[in-house]
Specification:
This protein has one domain: Arc Repressor Mutant, subunit A. The radius of gyration is 13 Å and the shape is globular. The model has no long low-confidence stretch (mean pLDDT 93). The chain is mostly helical. 46% of the residues lie in helices and 6% in strands. It has 3 helices and 2 strands. A two-stranded antiparallel sheet has the order 1-2.
Length: 72
């Protein structure tokens, strides 16, 4: 998947970022936790369009879910 989230050792020490930027994924997640809407995040980071922000959130959720322990 990872179309929107990338990690490279030379970019922010390997921290996951939005592809083509130096915007850390955890910063977007912290903004969501603090009650920011996609529109508000877009105001903070106008270089990201709303669709990209939504896809980043979806992709982060997918990564988290795919790494969750499987219960039987």
């Amino acid at each position: 998947m990872n179309k929107y989230i990338v990690s490279h050792p030379k970019i922010l020490g390997g921290k996951p970022v939005v592809k083509g930027t130096r915007i850390p994924i955890d910063q977007i997640l912290f903004l969501l936790k603090d009650g920011f809407t996609v529109d508000a995040i877009n105001e903070q980071y106008p270089q990201l369009n709303k669709q990209t922000i939504e896809r980043v959130i979806d992709e982060a959720a997918h990564v988290i879910n795919s790494n969750a322990p499987q219960t039987v």
